[in-house]
Design brief:
two-stranded antiparallel sheet; disordered C terminus; CDP-diacylglycerol--serine O-phosphatidyltransferase; EC 2.7.8.8; mainly alpha; Four Helix Bundle (Hemerythrin (Met), subunit A); membrane; 2 strands; transmembrane
Length: 234
């Protein structure tokens, strides 16, 4: 403690509005991991909500300014929400379906661990080399988590599907493939689809979850080559 009897939290006056949104993102990641043990659909929705928080903190930071702690908080929150939480969701699904006695279940859990490790590496490399640019190398952790969550909500919950997808996304996070930032209007469309996938249930929810999965995979596969590359020179 600084001064005698001073019990004011250190973050008061040091964090901005964007930072509080970032910490909400981290909390949602924890809740998603907890929810995965009860209902994978709720867990997936919480992951998508965390992704929305991740987008909002950037918008708020650009409009109202950021703090020196912001970049560090953002990476820590992303590790929780887009590294640990989706890997836990997949791992718990693997254990629920296959059980610990199956060697393939251990492989699935190991792939989840690799996903977390490479998410950390990817975020570290982003902070070191890509901040301030309009493009980034490797699949964004937010995109990887969004694809996994959308797949679950669209009904693709079989470990035989999720485990290879997780492995592929883990590798793509650290590949030297360049991904351009989304245009604001495209990000807005994705955001609307994402919100509808979160709030709608039943068949309508599955439709929007599938749409989100389709759009995310389209960007994953075709973004580096065909997405409007000319905007990078603006």
């Amino acid at each position: 403690m600084g001064e005698e009897g001073n019990v004011i939290p250190r973050f008061l006056g040091r964090l901005g509005l964007a930072d509080y949104v970032t910490t909400a993102n981290a909390a949602l990641g924890f809740l998603a991991a907890v929810a995965a043990t009860m209902d994978v659909g709720i867990a997936a929705r919480l992951l998508l909500l965390a992704a929305i928080m991740d987008a909002l903190d950037g918008i708020i930071a650009r409009k109202y300014g950021s703090t020196p702690a912001g970049v560090y908080l953002d990476s820590l929150a992303d590790v929780a929400s887009f590294g640990v939480a989706p890997a836990f969701l997949v791992s718990y699904t693997v254990l629920s379906e296959w059980g610990m006695d199956e060697p393939k279940a251990l492989i699935g859990i190991a792939i989840g661990a690799v996903f977390v490790a490479l998410a950390v590496v990817r975020l570290g490399l982003y902070n070191a080399y890509d901040i301030g640019t309009k493009e980034t190398e490797g699949v964004q952790t937010t995109l990887a988590a969004t694809i996994l969550a959308a797949a679950v909500l669209a009904g693709y919950t079989a470990p035989a599907f999720l485990v290879p997808l997780t492995a592929l996304l883990a590798v793509l996070m650290v590949t030297p493939i360049t991904y351009p930032d989304l245009h604001p209007q495209d990000a807005a469309v994705m955001g609307i689809v994402q919100v509808l996938a979160i709030v709608l249930t039943g068949q309508p929810g599955e439709v929007f979850a599938f749409a989100l999965l389709f759009l995310s995979l389209a960007y994953l596969l075709f973004g580096p080559r065909f997405y409007w590359q000319d905007h990078l020179d603006l």
